[in-house]
Amino acid sequence: MKGIAAARHPWPMGGHEMSKKILMLVGDFAEDYEVMVPFQALLAVGHTVHAVCPGKKAGEKIRTAIHDFEGDQTYSEKRGHDFALNASFDEVTPETYDALVIAGGRAPEYLRLNEKLLGVVRHFFKEDKPVAAICHGAQILTAAGVVKGRKVSAYPAVGPEVKLAGGEYANIAIDEAVVDGNLVTAPAWPAHPAWLAKFFEVLGTRVVHEEPAGVGH
Prior knowledge:
This protein is an alpha/beta fold. The chain has helices at residues 32-44, 107-111, 115-126, 138-144, 159-164, 192-203, and strands spanning 2-6, 21-25, 30-31, 48-52, 61-68, 76-84, 99-102, 131-134, 151-152, 168-169, 178-180, 183-186, 205-209. It is globular, with a radius of gyration of 17 Å.
């Protein structure tokens, strides 16, 4: 069987003593996989995840987009699933969260125009809390002014924005991720295994593989 263990951390916790309370920023036409996969994976290992979008309340939905890599000069885009939010952005108090996740896709293009959202992002960096961003999620980081002097991965087309904001753009393979302190970033959804594994490490979450009960030696 597989067991999950999470190390203690210095910030207030939500839910169970060993779990983290994680805020996730999403919006209309965020990338389908980059919303669904981290949201479900973090829940699966016992964390509490609140997915929010400015201008929307818990129970409302965002529309997602599927970005694929099919041999064109850039990604293709198709309509994705609807995703139901489980918390309201207007009720977010960043001090009560332990970590932040920022999904990619088209949503960051307009989410970065929301000043309250940028203030929320700055809180996590000021307090040095774990942050995971993927693909175009780096557009929110650059708009918040938090990448200066940091090594950041992103979808390659966002690389110039990272550099202009004073960050070091990590030009890594599409299925890799990079860690800079408590910041974990990756180019796109093919990096989910590496990105999530590194984020688990930063969170102090450990996946343990044990001998199934009842199996003799």
